[in-house]
Design a protein that fits this description.
single chain, 363 residues, Methane Monooxygenase Hydroxylase, Chain G, domain 1, Luciferase, domain 3, GMP Synthetase, Chain A, domain 3, four-stranded antiparallel sheet
Length: 363
Amino acid sequence: MLDELVEQILARFSALETELSDPAVIGDRERFTAASRAYRELEPAAKLAVEYRLAADDAAGARELLEDGEDPEIRELLRTSIERLETLEEEIRLAMVERDPNDDKNVIIEIRPGIGGDEAGIWAGDVYRMLTRYAERLGFKVQHVYGLTEVYGPSGTCEPQPGWADLTLSDRARNMARQGVPAVTQEDLMILDPGGHPVPADGTTMGELAFRGNVVMKGYLKNQAATAEAFRHGWFLTGDLGVLHKDGYVEIKDRAKDIIISGGENISSLEVEDVLYRHPAVREAAVVAMPDEKWGEIPLAVITFKEGATATEAELTSFCRQHLAGFKIPKRYVFEELPKTSTGKIQKHLLHKRAQAILEKQK
C-alpha cells in the first residue's frame, strides 16, 4: 500500500510542477498562490518518496544479484536498503498526516483497514501525540485499547466518559491515552505493589499492571521459571508499571526495564517523553537511562525535530522545567532520527547502546 501512496505523492507533485509552469496559472494570482502553497506542503513528502523509490530499487537489485550467489557486499546493501525503507515509511506517513488539514483538495491520507464496523484505521504508537496532533483535526473517532499476546490481545480499554467532551483537547487526550478498565473478556485488571497488593487509587503510587481471567495464558511453553515469575502473585504481571486513578482507570507510566533510577529517585521515561512531545518543535522524542558516576543514571533525550523547526538544549531544558521536577529533566540531548522497527516502534535497546557509546566517548 505504501508503494501506491508513493506513486500518488510523486504524481501529484509532478502535476503541481506542471501547473506552476502554466502561463494561465502564473497570470492568475489566486490559482498560483494556491498551487505554490500545495507545492511547498507536498515537497518534503515528495523528496522522501524519491528516496523511497531509490532504496526500493537498490533492494530489488540486491535481491536479484543474490540469486546468482552470496556476496557480502551485496548482502550488506540489501540490509541497509531495507533499514532505509523502514525509516522512510514512517517519515512519509508523518509527512502526509502533518500537512494542512484545511487543504482538503491536496491531502492524501492512507488509512489501514480496521477490525470492526466503526474503525477506519489502526494506530500503533504514542496515543497522546496521535490524539492532539492528528485525530480530531482529521475527524477520527478514537478508541484506545491495550493488550499483549499473553492475555489474548486487547484486554484493557479506555472507555470515554461523558464529561470528557467538555475538557480541553490536551486534558481529554491525556484521559483517553490511559489504558483504562478491563475488557469484557477479562476478569480484572489491577495495579499491584511489589507484595502483590492493590495500590491506592491516587494516581501517583506506582505498581505493576496485572491481569486475571480465563483468557490469560497458562504459561510459557517449556519455561517454568518464566511462568512462575510472571504469575508470582496469582495474577499475570505484564512488566508495565503504572498507577490507578480515583475513577478506576489504570495508566501505564513506563516499562519496568525503562525506569530511570537517578540518585535513588524513579523517573518514568514516558512522563519525560510526554512533556517533550508538547514542545512545538519536537516531532519525536525518546528518553533512556544514561550511566552517570554521581547519580547512577541520568535521563538522556533523543529528539527528532519537525521539518524546518529546531530548538537548543537550553530551550528544551527550560520548557521541561515548567512541567517536571528538576531531577526528571534530561541532562543530555541527542538530535537525530530515532531507530524504529518496520511497524514504527521505537527501538529503545539501540538507544541504550547509543547512551553507552556517548559515555565511552567522554572517557
